[in-house]
Specification:
Elements (H helix, E strand, L loop, with lengths): L16 E2 L4 E2 L6 E2 L9 H4 L1 E2 L10
Antiparallel strand pairs: 1-2, 3-4
The structure holds iron/sulfur cluster.
């Protein structure tokens, strides 16, 4: 994989997000479908599984 790839992301509630730069600070992320997904819609089929909430820190 290219070492210059960046992950652009605007999910401000994630602990890995730099809000001002619209960037993910991780080197790689896992993208997965949601557990109940079969719609074919992007918002059901392509969730960021690396997400961690600022407050909940699950
Ligand atoms: S882990 Fe996922 S949701 Fe969080 S900043 Fe990176 S790409 Fe965005």
């Amino acid at each position: 994989m290219s070492t210059c790839q960046r992950i652009m992301c605007s999910v401000g509630s994630c602990i890995y997000n730099t809000n001002k730069d619209n960037l993910c600070t991780l080197d790689a992320i896992q993208v997965s479908a949601s557990a109940k997904s079969d719609s074919g819609a992007p918002y059901d089929e392509t969730l960021c599984a690396s997400y961690k909430n600022h407050d909940k820190k699950k």
